[in-house]
Design a protein that fits this description.
The protein starts with a helix and ends with a helix. It has three domains: about 160 residues, no CATH class; about 210 residues, no CATH class; about 90 residues, Gyrase A, domain 2, CATH 3.30.1360.60. It is globular and about 90 Å long. About 60% of the residues lie in helices and about 10% in strands. The longest helix has about 40 residues. Strand 1 and strand 2 form a beta hairpin. The strands form three sheets. Strands 5-6-8-7 form a four-stranded antiparallel β-sheet. The chain contains 19 helices and eight strands. The protein has about 525 residues and is α+β, with helices and mostly antiparallel strands.
Length: about 525
């Protein structure tokens, strides 16, 4: 668990960038949403231009999040000033070699839109490799730097220093990795399309939608969701529909938007929206419940008051932006068990809504990177359509159960499971060791916590066992005027709760002795 906490400390900035991207998408989408025009008459082209800029900027930041993580993890090695440059160039080499060695042709959604390579007069698209290409390069570069840390190779040649040797090793490794990817990655793409074809041929089966729900979120985590969304939202795999004039529309979102624009009241009579309806439950109920559950673990009153605005803003962004990724990454680096629960619940929501034939689409503004399915603005205005009222009411009922489940699970994890998830019986031992490393219970004058940190005031600061705390799982210790801040991860709430229980017991015993 301390390894996960260390990653959380390193990845705070990239996660904050994702929240910023969600905020930009929320603001931009608010003005670009076609329903807003029925409520507020906005005819200023400057406002629409600014809104488009915000959504595109937010979408780009969101889409390239693995690259920020890649750079941040490399930059964390402070003793290696050239490792970031080596990593970036190695990744470029990897992409170029992979593109040249992989002549297989796939659907356009498999390739990046930012560039192509022309080889012998033939244009080849650049593969989307999601997090996997960057992960492979990261492992190669860090291995090269670690294995050559004490190497004296090429020391006899004065103009070839160690960093140059490392750079050469890294780009060679990147080329070898690209060679392997040229065989493996087309197979991965084929299997992705096999799964999508399987889903498209059996969309009326709730268990198929159960599988799709988890697959969709995993592909988002792998930064390959644009493949899934392009094919299911806008491709023939997402269904086809012919309007009254004989025009054929392909894709779940395309069909939904076409039906909204029809003069006849046909919206809600078809299955359009089946691949996006679960997002309403996730964004409006699941994520707020998770955030409120985390907020309820703040025992530090100062931080409790300071973060209430952050909580409300995060909930509002979730409801308006329709972006789940920042919250999901927060789950992974702070409470991976909750992320597994989230994957299961996402799949279950897709299955339940499919079984109840509750389907709702969203207003697509033309930018896939900043698409915001399941946002509050759409739901409010869709509720005004009589054909959809019953479906929305059922969805709200499902959402209420999901809210309770997420809140209860979050509280259970932070209150009971975070310290001893396997229930192997060493919880009490860990707590006693923690108290001993604080200098004993008598040395603790005050202790409180935030979701990942413990704030403690000690009678004698010298008694704090720093080395023992690091063995306990504390990744960082900050000394302040008030005391110490211990970064220990999601188990911080349990530790402070148990220590406070023992403090209260001591106070009661002292009161009894005084009374006697």
């Amino acid at each position: 668990m301390n390894r996960i906490q260390s990653y959380y400390e390193q990845l705070q900035f990239p996660i904050k960038l994702l929240f910023l991207s969600s905020f930009l998408i929320a603001i931009g989408s608010l003005f670009l949403n076609p329903y807003i025009s029925t409520f507020i008459n906005i005819e200023n082209t400057i406002i629409f231009t600014i809104a488009q800029i915000l959504t595109y900027c937010g979408g780009i930041i969101l889409s390239y999040f693995p690259f920020y993580v890649f750079i941040k993890l490399l930059a964390h090695r402070k003793d290696e000033p050239n490792i970031v440059i080596t990593g970036i160039i190695s990744y470029i080499i990897f992409i170029v070699v992979l593109t040249i060695l992989s002549p297989a042709k796939f659907e356009p959604s498999v390739y990046e839109k930012i560039g192509e390579i022309v080889l012998l007069g033939e244009t080849t698209g650049i593969y989307k490799t999601g997090i996997f290409g960057l992960l492979g390069i990261y492992l190669i570069v860090t291995y090269v730097y670690q294995s050559t840390k004490d190497s004296k190779l090429f020391s006899m040649i004065s103009y070839v220093d160690r960093d140059t040797v490392r750079f050469i090793y890294s780009i060679v490794g990147a080329g070898v990795l690209a060679f392997g990817f040229s065989f493996l990655w087309p197979i991965v793409i084929e299997y992705i399309y096999k799964i999508l074809n399987f889903v498209s041929t059996d969309v009326n089966n709730p268990m198929t939608m159960f599988a799709y729900g988890g697959f969709d979120r995993l592909m988002t985590l792998f930064n390959l969701d644009s493949i899934v969304h392009s094919e299911m939202w806008f491709g023939s795999l997402g269904g086809t529909w012919v309007d009254l004039s004989g025009v054929t529309f392909n894709g779940d979102v395309t069909i939904w938007m076409a039906q909204l624009n029809e003069n006849m009241n046909i919206i809600g009579t078809s299955d359009a929206g089946r691949f996006t309806s679960a997002y309403y439950v996730l964004n409006l109920f699941a994520i707020p419940a998770y955030l409120i559950g985390i907020y309820s673990t703040f025992s530090n009153k100062q931080y409790l008051t300071r973060n209430i605005f952050v909580l409300l803003l995060a909930i509002l962004i979730s409801m308006v932006s329709g972006v789940l990724l920042p919250i999901e990454l927060l789950m992974i680096v702070t409470s991976p068990i909750l992320y597994v629960f989230h994957l299961f619940m996402t799949s279950l929501i897709f299955a339940v809504l499919s079984g109840l034939s509750v389907y709702l689409g969203f207003s697509y503004t033309g930018n896939l990177l900043a698409a915001n399915p399941g946002n509050l603005i759409d739901l409010i205005f869709l509720f005004r359509r009589i054909a959809l009222v019953d479906k929305i009411m059922i969805m709200l009922l499902v959402g209420a159960f999901v809210f309770i489940a997420y809140f209860a699970m979050t509280r259970l994890y932070y209150g009971k499971l975070a310290l001893d998830i396997l229930n192997i019986g060493n919880k009490e031992e860990k707590i006693n060791d923690f108290i001993e490393r604080l200098g004993g219970i008598e040395n603790v004058s005050y202790i409180s916590s935030t979701p990942t940190r413990i704030h403690v005031q000690l009678e004698n600061r010298e008694k704090l066992n720093v080395a023992g705390m690091h063995q306990q799982g504390v990744t960082r210790i900050i000394e302040t005027k008030q005391g110490f801040v211990l970064s220990i991860g999601s188990s911080s709430y349990i530790y402070q709760k148990e220590v406070n229980k023992k403090l209260k017991t001591i106070v009661k015993e002292e009161q009894v002795e005084v009374a006697v």
